[in-house]
Amino acid sequence: MSSPSIALQAGLDALKQGDYLKAIEQLEGVCQEEQPNSKVALQAQMYLVKAYQRAGQLQLAIALCRQLTTHEQSQVQQWAVKTLPTLLPPAGVVQEFLQAGHTALKQKRYAEACQLLEQFLQNSAGLDSAKVQQAQMWLVKAYQGNGQLEEAIARCQQLQENDPDPLVQNWVQQLLPTLASAQAKQGSESPAAEPSSTMPMPIFPKAGRAAQMGVKLLMKGTAASLALASVVTISLLFGMVLVLALSLTLIVDSTHPTIGLMVAIGLTIVFTTLVFFLSPMLMDLMQQWLYGTRWISLTDLERHSPESARVVRRICSDRKLRHPKLGLIDDQNPTAFTYGSLPDTARLVVSRGLFTYLDDDEVATVYAHELGHVVHWDFAVMTAASALVQITYLMYVYARELGEQINDKRVRGAAVGTAIAAYVFYFVGTYLLLYLSRTREYFADHFAAETTGNPNGLSRALVKIAYGIVEEGRRNENEKKPNRLMEGTRALGIYDAKAATSTGTAYRVASDPSKVGRVFLWDLFNPWAWWMELQSTHPLTGKRVRALSTYAEQLGLDVEYEMGRVVKEGRTLSKRRLYSSFFLDLLLYSAETTGIVVGALLGLMQFVNTQNPAGFLIFPILGGGIGLLLKTLVMYPSFHRAPYTDVLTLMSDPYASPLRGQPVKLDGTIIGRGDAGYAFGSDLKFQDPTGMMFLRYASLWGPMGNFFFGMTQVSSLIGNQGAAVGWFRRGIMPYLDLFRFNQVNSYHRFWSFLVAGGAIALSFFLMAVFYS
């Protein structure tokens, strides 16, 4: 370890111990000795801001933090912009954004000026209207200088409509023709504009878009045929319903089984039809009640996203569709979804966060994606398929109840057999439904790429949506509100919120697009990714971005997030490390269940040979205990020489597993509860300079201990810095099984070993009782 790194660690240790003067001395030494833009120097400066603050040297902290707001690395700039308000007196926070934004504008740092002035306007309630007016005019100039002409024109038009001041009206009238002329010269769909998000976020160069829209793009190797997927899914599900309807008809020994069968089929069709046609109205009521959805016109949409309005008009005109009913939810969590029964009754709903986090061309690709669902009748197919799956479950419940009520052994046996078949059909049908859902997402992505000529825009949109979900999750910690919108629309939305952590975190802190792309290695090449995806309504983000990159290549465009390099790197990964133990790991992943099943089979064999039923009890307990013991040994290896690492490095590991835990140590801060808004949740959100990670806590006293820990201790931990030690796992959502954070201990291994050992001991005790 180099001398500056030792000094950095010494400074961090002093900061944790409250010795702020020593921390300042060590960290200032690192800053003097290292190159200003080196990783060690940047970490030292960020910790030094905290040391100055806690030592009461606020002026030094503010000066250094203000210097970092202009840093060329986006993650450093973002951190500083968010930290600066915490250093300033409350009355000066908003004014600081205005002054800093004006300074950035004068120095032609236009992207930074846009961010700072938007921050000022977001928090300008109750401030001097003259300053708000000035900020809006400066923001127009910042957008103009940054090449974001559509945003500049939209702001100008807002001023023209809302500010009656004659001076402002004259200024707008003079500037608008200049902006319109520049936009015409640039082209309304030029790829040169920079991101226009109102939130501080990384700014990467765009990979570009096609000059022509509507070019046919091949999907070979991307996804199965949508028509085939729909027909196979619906046919199999409907076939299941027919088989079960026939079984239920025969159970009752009807004298007219044909009539009984026709009645059963008729009820099935009536139920499905009612669900199909009534679901849009029921969804409208639920949307209004749960999320406060309000309906907007195309003109309203045009104010938020001019290109999206053009896309909706053009696609509906080309496909001879009625414009969908457009909904807007006033929530900053970015999402979009479509529902309905027929294409002409479609509802297309988005949240306000979509316009916050995405640029205009990216929002347009999201609207095109959702219109793809309308054109393909996806919501109609999913409605019918979902209804059929639910019918199989209702039949399972009915057959089970019927079997319990009838005394005739023959009829009861038939009912039990039908119930088992119904449940198997329900289980298989659920996975068929998930398969169909993933397939329709690929085809909607393809439709958006074709109709906009902008597959790279949709790639950016998916990644930025993940980023927005992560950012809003962090904000919800302070507001103590559960993320009801993202949970309630998880299956409907364009993006699975549960999968956002790795992609959103990578985008938040990455210094270049290739680091975002490396996070997709796991999605594309790890066999666990395929296994986890089977249980998801959406394809993994890496697979969607990879498919979109093939469309960009067909259009002769550069590819977003350097996916070509990512795929090339993935092909060099060790196949032995990826696959050699995967099938064994699958067995271990459910080892306790496998042990119980094997034990039951052994018990059956013993019963056949000895007629002693004790084995039905003893061997499943023994098998489950042995299975859990083996699984625990694999999941929680020794902490001997557990390395210090960071969140982004862990998320970029293509070999990570949800079973084989990696012992690691992370330095960072507890920023909130794992389940935002749940006051008794024991899991935690942890952040280091490279990203966010969920920490799963396990009390020594079991679930009740988790409850009391969440109720009494979690609030006091939020904001604490320290080292988190635990086992990293990667599934759809990455997390750390916590072993220790500062003085807080977690006991995952203890309970697993206790339950496994208890089951094995109990089985031997029962053997002694029954076989002595």
Describe this structure in words.
With 772 residues, this protein is of the alpha+beta class. It has 33 helices and eleven strands. The chain has a five-stranded mixed beta barrel with strand order 6-7-8-10-9. Helix 22 packs across helix 25. 45% of the residues are buried. About 2% of the residues have low confidence.
Concise structural overview:
It is built from 33 helices and 11 strands. The protein has 772 residues and is an alpha+beta fold. α6 packs parallel to α8 (129-145).
Distance linking N and C termini: 63 Å
Radius of gyration, taken over Cα atoms and rounded to an integer in Å: 30 Å
| Main beta-sheet strand count, sense and barrel state | 5 strands, mixed, barrel
SSE-based structural type: alpha+beta
Outline the secondary-structure elements.
Layout (H helix, E strand, L loop, with lengths): L2 H14 L3 H14 L5 H16 L3 H11 L5 H14 L5 H14 L3 H13 L6 H17 L3 H14 L3 H21 L39 H26 L5 H35 L2 E3 L1 H7 L1 H14 L5 E5 L6 E4 L7 E5 H6 L2 H16 L2 H28 L3 H44 L2 H25 L4 H5 L11 H10 L3 H13 L1 H7 L7 H14 L8 H8 L4 H5 L2 H8 L1 H20 L4 H21 L8 E2 L1 H5 L10 E12 L10 E5 L2 E6 L5 H11 L1 H4 L3 E9 L5 E7 L2 E2 L2 H24 L1
Parallel strand pairs: 2-4, 5-6, 8-10
Antiparallel strand pairs: 1-2, 3-4, 6-7, 6-9, 7-8, 9-10, 10-11
